[in-house]
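Structure tokens please, single chain.
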Amino acid sequence: MVVLETKSTIGEVTAIVAVCCAGLAAVANLVGAAVLLRAFFGDPARLDDSLTLFATLGAMVAAFAFGYGALLLARRDQTGRWVIIVAALAQLGLGALGLLATLLNYDPEYGTHWFAEEPVLRSILVGLGGVPGAVTAIVNHSWAAALACIGLGGLVLLPAALPWTATYTATGRTATV
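Here you go.
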């Protein structure tokens, strides 16, 4: 009987963390889209139709990007790491827009109907909803939701952008017998 001794390298650990964080972001976007659609179909007059549509589509695209990137990264494909990085940067950008809209007190003045003001704790949970959370942060001027959205993007970006993860994916798959 032959026993293979395996040691985890730091690249393996960072890649596993990146895959888990990307999977978490994919699930967060799906949950955010589900909550948004549930609220929309519960009371269609409560939410803006086009904003709901585009936020839901954005959440679906983000969930696909995070999920597919995680799958590719788990297979040691460099492309997956880049897909995760681009999706996380987009998430960070939307959160930054939400924070900027809050700080500047931006009002589009076209009568957008959206969720009512939420308490801070619930705003944080809303912000963790991915793209719908970022849209809510922009429309409602919620700094807590915007910071939660930025935190989610940063949580996904950090392990995927580390040089050890890049080195791990650059070595490619190794065949074990």
